[in-house]
Amino acid sequence: MKIKLFGNIAINATWTLTIGFLLIYLSIVGTMAYVLFIDGVAGGFGQFVSIPSFILVFGVGIGFTLMRKHTLKENELGIALKKDFILAGWIGFLIGLGFLGAGMDEQFGNIEWGVSILVSNLKTFTIPLLYGYICGNMFEASLTQPISK
């Protein structure tokens, strides 16, 4: 079944797509719940939520795709979004490293302080990668038309 979004862009809603999405979602949330509540690792679900990272990955990923939309063939939108979301995740990673480095040069020479800053801010530069890879693959799966019926 196709769910038409706008123009000639539609989401392919199939049982395999729905089951795959649920499997991904339940695997990620289930693993996080197990590690947090049964293994007792410090942290929480909020450690994996970052509105700035989400805005950066979606904005840059969709922006790159829109800039080159005129070069895409009819069935290449999902593949292009995947590549652009992953690229946006890596750009977010580099921006996060830049922010991390800017904070570390304030205490130049203090190794203990630098290591604690690095460890406490790993989220800053790893979450955009997570968002880019997961969202990119989900968009590719849902926006690419089936080759055979």
Describe what you observe in this structure.
With 149 residues, this protein is mostly helical. The chain has one domain (2-143). It is built from five helices and two strands. It has helices spanning 15-38, 51-67, 77-104, 111-120, 122-143; strands at residues 2-6, 9-12. A two-stranded antiparallel sheet has the order 1-2. A hairpin with a 2-residue loop joins strand 1 (2-6) and strand 2 (9-12). Helix 2 packs across helix 3 (77-104) and helix 3 (77-104) packs antiparallel against helix 5. The longest helix is centred in the middle third of the chain and has 28 residues, at 77-104. It is flat. It starts with a strand and ends in a 6-residue tail after the last helix.
Q: Which labels suit this protein?
A:
6% strand, 2 strands
Task: Write a brief caption for the model.
The chain is 68% helix and 6% strand. The chain has 149 residues and is mainly alpha-helical. α2 (51-67) packs across α3, α2 packs across α5 (122-143) and α3 (77-104) runs antiparallel to α5 (122-143).
Strand content: 5-15%
First-to-last CA distance: 12 Å
Strand order of the largest sheet: 1-2
H/E series, N to C? Answer: EEHHHHH
Mean pLDDT: 83
Total individual domains: 1
Counted by DSSP, the helix tally is 5
Question: How many strands, which pairing sense, and closed or not: the largest β-sheet?
Answer: 2 strands, antiparallel
Spatial extent as radius of gyration: 19 Å
Report low-confidence residues grouped into runs of 5 or more.
none
Oligomer: single chain
Shape: flat
- SS content category: mainly alpha
Number of strands: 2
Helix content: 55-70%
